[in-house]
Write a structure and sequence with these properties.
Shape of chain A: globular
Number of strands of chain B: 4
CATH architecture of chain B: Orthogonal Bundle
Number of strands of chain A: 22
Structural class of chain B: mainly alpha
Strand content of chain B: under 5%
CATH topology of chain B: ABC transporter involved in vitamin B12 uptake, BtuC
Oligomer: heterodimer
CATH class of the largest domain in chain A: Alpha Beta
CATH class of chain B: Mainly Alpha
Strand content of chain A: 15-25%
Strand order of the largest sheet of chain B: 1-2
Structural class of chain A: alpha/beta
Helix content of chain A: 25-40%
CATH topology of the largest domain in chain A: Rossmann fold
Order of helices and strands of chain B: HHHHHEEHEEHHHHHHH
């Protein structure tokens, strides 16, 4: 939206023109054009998979764009690698703080790490020289740390400041900060934001990538929204978080929301109830219920607390507060085994890291949660396993080389069918799904969704996703989490794009009477 | 809607025909070790006719039996992604404990077996405490217990060997190795030496346990992806403890057999068994394309080493070459496991 250019009117430092990036058949970035000015904090937001990481990789020299060009102060940049980017004056502070820190050496040595990488006339590195150089670097960044301490004794926020100080010592033109506050406390975040404002005041151009709308609103002079690899909109301060989130979610949302086969209020008995639960210590408590025949959706931005909630319901994390009732009986899972015996199952967020065992067959995955059921006197019964695998394959329409093939031979969607389907082999009273459609093609989503809806009468289902479209496709009611607390609850038929975006951005609504 | 089998798989997922080189590698990987074993046996028999006799076969089996029993325990600990380095020290400790029980305290062979097993469980308990409770990484934890119990074995005997008639506090020791106990080392059942019988029994037991029971499946799940195992409801800590208990028990049985064979408590008798047992277990990865710790592979691995050494001895190769040869065998099979595996993925041993 055009308006008087707020913030510094410095000259453009970095210009990205028509940058596209293809990985084989996948287009990660399409025709991205933007420019960042000196002294400006430029925000970049987008949902997972929108292309933020790819854009950062292009700017920091890790990848070359397929088409398009980068210019720094008018000069065309051709980056062969990260070192070229750094030499050109682009510094990046990565999301994983410890990627920039060397453990086992002192703070001073970490601050002066770049001196080691520099070629040049040989020179003995003495403690005294290192300390002097480190002191200068720290002072320039306004950082007060014990120079001789081993770096691992420092808290994460101070380690991050060290990485930042190193970057600043090279006097960059552009500083890229990738999700810098994801591991920081509120107080540490404030300190970081103040540091960013100081850097901008000094004339550095800052690209600030984050999921946190509050920071974007406080800090950024302009914000660009990436969706599906394209810059959808650029906002200028003062920024309305709800509009930013709406841009992140997209126009299809409105159309999809309208098309939902009006999930009428379910009248079945309450199968699962949670009272006074919190996603994390200190967050506001809330409650939820799931009735027979209904699917409950949970959505919210990344970091809103969906996974923390589901993990508590499954016994992976201790319950922070409150109580849980399963079919009217108290339910307090000590660990996943306990949860499974009570009839609760979790399809975890990351299939590869949390569900799949490399080289194992489809059949072995299907029976893993229920080994006792498939054995007699401890001995596994292959026929019983084979029958279970055949049931899951038939129910979900799993396509692949067969139940004895390694699961890696299946496509992502089919793998997910196995990972979800294996739970339905047992007596499941509550099925929890965390981002179940990540890396899953449209066809597989439809198959999984169909089965879940068919089972909703027997099994209470809670589906969590940071993509509200996915949730709306399946759920009858949707809970929206924001920053760890419940922002609102909507019936799927009433969930318009605007209301969802507002709730996800943090604007509260009164909780509807049930 | 069912779609199983290549015929109905969508074209994109149909498995492509393998190039010739890859097929050769695949065959080499799967049958290579067994083929080398066969060739080696034939070669030795041709060079030294005495090698190919039944009597010699029994000698070979006898010599590998104890290594095999210990190696089976190591195999179980490896299935979970762990690594029990303390097995050699365990064997030494058990040898000393059994020797003391009979020679110093004049107790029965049965009591010696009991104390030997308890000693092995003690070592296992220490491993469990360190790895599961204190969360020390397996490799370094068992290294630590290895030193602890190697040392303890020396302390309880004041650093000296234990044998019948030795002097204790100025007088000859009251006891001796009982016949019953000695039978374990030198007796036979249906003309098969007892240690070989034990090896076959343990081999069968571990084979069934690891490959065909739900506990074995759970152990392999932990070794493959401990997070996924936990989220599937497997109580990881309990199974890891079980693995170390089994490993300790196998080492204890190995120690009892060794003690019976030696008829005395020799200082450090069990220490060489660590390398041989670990080598056998690792060689076992490469047998018949298992690509994971497995009982059959371990037995073949132990046999492999045993035949090699026996054959070399018959060819009058000096004793000091044996360690090198074992190392070469181990390195060769590791290369087979880690390089030739068709389409392999990252594997982590610990």
């Amino acid at each position: 939206m055009a308006g008087p250019a707020a913030g510094p009117a410095g000259p453009p430092v970095v210009a990205v023109s028509g940058v596209s990036k293809r990985y084989g058949a996948t287009v990660a970035l399409r025709d991205v054009t933007l420019e960042i000015r000196a002294g400006e904090v430029f925000g970049l937001v987008g949902a997972n998979g929108a292309g933020k990481s790819t854009l950062i990789k292009v700017l920091s020299g890790v990848t070359r764009p397929t088409t398009g060009e980068l210019r720094l102060r008018g000069r065309r940049l051709d980056l062969a690698g990260p070192l070229d980017a750094r030499n050109a004056g682009i510094e990046t502070v990565h999301q994983n703080i410890d990627d920039g820190v060397v453990f086992g050496v002192s703070v001073a040595e970490n601050l002066t790490l770049d001196a080691l990488a520099r070629r040049g006339p040989g020179r003995f590195v003495t403690r005294a020289r290192t300390r002097a150089a480190a002191r200068a670097i720290a002072a320039a960044a306004g950082l007060d740390v014990p120079l001789d301490a081993p770096v691992e004794t420092l808290p994460a926020s101070l380690r991050q400041r060290i990485v930042l100080a190193r970057a600043l010592a090279r006097r960059p033109e552009l500083l890229i900060l990738d999700e810098p506050t994801s591991t920081l406390s509120a107080a540490e975040t404030e300190t970081l934001l103040a540091a960013v404002r100081r850097m901008a005041a000094d004339g550095i151009a800052v690209l600030y990538v984050s999921h946190r709308m509050s920071e974007i609103r406080e800090l950024c002079d302009r914000v660009a929204v990436l969706r599906d690899g394209v810059i959808r909109e650029t906002f200028t301060a003062p920024v309305d978080p709800a509009r930013v989130v709406a841009a992140m979610l997209g126009d299809d949302l409105a159309a999809r929301a309208a098309a939902v086969p009006g999930g009428g209020a379910a009248t079945g008995p309450v199968r699962f109830a949670a009272e006074g639960v919190r996603t994390r210590p200190g967050a506001e408590p809330f409650g939820l219920t799931v009735r027979a025949g209904e699917i409950l959706g949970v959505t919210g931005l990344v970091g809103a607390g969906k996974t923390e909630l589901l993990e508590q319901l499954y016994g992976v994390r201790p319950l922070v507060s409150g109580r849980l009732l399963l079919d009217g009986e108290p339910y307090r899972p000590r660990d996943p085994r306990h949860a499974i015996s009570a009839g609760v199952a979790l399809v975890a967020e990351e299939r590869a890291a949390q569900a799949m065992v490399p080289t194992w067959s489809v059949r072995a995955h299907v029976t893993l949660p229920h080994l006792a059921a498939h054995s007699r006197l401890g001995l596994l019964r292959r026929r019983s396993e084979a029958r279970a695998a055949a049931r899951v394959i038939g129910l979900f329409g799993v396509r692949g080389p067969g139940p004895d093939a390694p699961i890696e031979a299946l496509s992502g969607g089919n793998q997910q069918k196995v990972v979800v389907g294996r739970w339905l082999e047992g007596e499941v009273r509550l099925l929890l799904l965390d981002e179940p459609f990540r890396g899953v093609d449209v066809g597989a989503r439809a198959d999984i969704g169909r089965v879940l809806r068919e089972r909703a009468g027997r099994t209470a289902v809670i589906v969590a996703s940071s993509d509200p479209q996915e949730v709306l496709d399946l759920a009858d009611r949707v809970l929206v989490l924001h920053d760890g607390a419940l922002a609102g609850e909507l019936r799927a038929a009433e969930a318009t794009a605007e209301r969802l975006a507002a709730l996800m951005a943090g604007r509260r609504e009164p909780v509807e009477a049930r | 809607m069912t779609a199983i089998g290549k015929g109905t798989a969508p074209a994109a997922e149909r498995v492509p025909a393998r190039p010739l080189g890859e097929r050769a590698a695949r065959l080499g990987y799967r049958y290579g070790l067994v083929a080398v074993l066969a060739v080696m046996t034939v070669a030795f028999a041709a060079l030294r006719p005495a090698f190919g006799t039944w009597a010699n076969a029994l000698i070979v089996l006898q010599s590998v039996a104890i290594v095999a029993v210990v190696a089976l325990g190591v195999t179980v600990s490896m299935a979970t992604g762990g690594f029990d380095l303390s097995v050699g020290a365990n064997v030494s400790f058990v040898v000393m404990v059994t020797a003391l029980t009979m020679v110093r305290f004049n107790l029965t062979g049965g009591t010696a077996i009991l104390t030997g097993l308890l000693a092995g469980l003690l070592v296992a308990g220490a491993n469990v405490l360190l790895t599961v409770v204190c969360r020390v990484p397996d490799l370094v934890a068992t290294l630590g217990t290895m030193f602890l119990f190697q040392g303890l074995a020396l302390i309880i005997t004041s650093g000296e060997s234990v044998s019948a008639g030795m002097t204790v506090d100025g007088e000859p020791a009251p006891g001796r190795y009982t016949e019953g106990f000695l039978w374990l080392g030198s007796g036979t059942i249906a003309s098969v030496p007892v240690p070989v019988v034990v090896m076959l029994l343990f081999g069968a037991a571990v084979y069934v346990f690891l490959g065909h029971t739900r506990w074995g499946r759970a152990l392999y799940a932990i070794g493959g992806n401990a997070r996924a195992a936990r989220l599937a409801g497997i109580r990881v800590e309990r199974y890891r403890a079980l693995a170390y208990l089994i490993s300790g028990l196998c080492a204890a049985v190995g120690g009892i057999l060794l003690s019976a064979r030696l008829g005395r408590g020799d200082v450090g008798a069990g220490d060489p068994y660590l390398l041989q047992a670990v080598a056998a277990a690792l060689i076992g990865f490469a047998v018949l394309g298992a690509n994971r710790p497995n009982a059959l592979g371990t037995l073949v691995g132990a046999l492999f080493i045993g035949i090699m050494i026996n054959g070399l001895t018959m060819l009058n190769a000096p004793y000091y070459t044996q360690t090198f040869v074992q190392g070469a065998l181990l390195v060769g099979s590791l290369i087979m496991s880690y390089t030739l595996t068709p389409g392999r993925r990252e594997r982590h041993l610990t």
